[in-house]
């Protein structure tokens, strides 16, 4: 694929055309304008995690790797904006422009760390909401 060492990739003005390394790290500048068209779902949860999905413009999604999950620095570099602690956890193959995120219940959105007391309270609230909590 690309022969440019990784530390030099960030210094080049346009990525290579191999579509397998550089564009993951340094997407074309036109994708930056696509960031304003990124859509965010409401959060939803189960008894362990909270979830959300992010819908990317299709032209932006075409620049992303198809066979692996994105790191936090990668999804932030394409313009996805959300609080700390979110992890890209799955690829929905029929719609690869939809990124699926999760984070443990009780995650502090400022630090990204899990607060055990917040986690317990969030689990109890979930169980209470669905009638699973014994009174």
UniProtKB/TrEMBL annotation:
Keyword check for NAD: no
One Gene Ontology molecular-function label: cyclin-dependent protein serine/threonine kinase regulator activity
Organism: Amphora coffeiformis
SUPFAM superfamilies per the UniProt record, alphabetical: Cell cycle regulatory proteins
GO term, biological process aspect, one: cell division
Protein's name according to its UniProt entry: Cyclin-dependent kinases regulatory subunit
Family: Belongs to the CKS family.
Gene3D superfamilies: Cyclin-dependent kinase, regulatory subunit
InterPro entries per the UniProt record, alphabetical: Cyclin-dep_kinase_reg-sub, Cyclin-dep_kinase_reg-sub_sf
Pfam families, per the entry: CKS
GO cellular component, one term: cytoplasm
Function: Binds to the catalytic subunit of the cyclin dependent kinases and is essential for their biological function.
Assigned keywords, A-Z: Cell cycle, Cell division
Keyword Cell division in annotation: yes
Signal peptide start-end: none
């Amino acid at each position: 694929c690309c022969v440019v060492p990784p530390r030099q990739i960030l210094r080049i003005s346009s990525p290579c055309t191999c579509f397998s390394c550089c564009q993951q790290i340094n997407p074309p500048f036109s994708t930056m304008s696509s960031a304003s068209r990124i859509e965010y779902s409401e959060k939803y949860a189960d008894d362990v995690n909270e979830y959300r999905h992010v819908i990317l413009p299709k032209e932006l999604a075409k620049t992303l790797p198809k066979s692996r999950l994105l790191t936090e620095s990668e999804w932030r570099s394409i313009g996805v904006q959300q609080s700390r602690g979110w992890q890209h956890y799955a690829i929905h193959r029929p719609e690869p422009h939809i990124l699926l995120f999760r984070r443990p219940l009780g995650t502090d959105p400022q630090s990204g760390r899990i607060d055990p007391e917040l986690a317990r309270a969030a689990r109890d609230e979930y169980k209470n909401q669905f009638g699973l909590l014994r009174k």
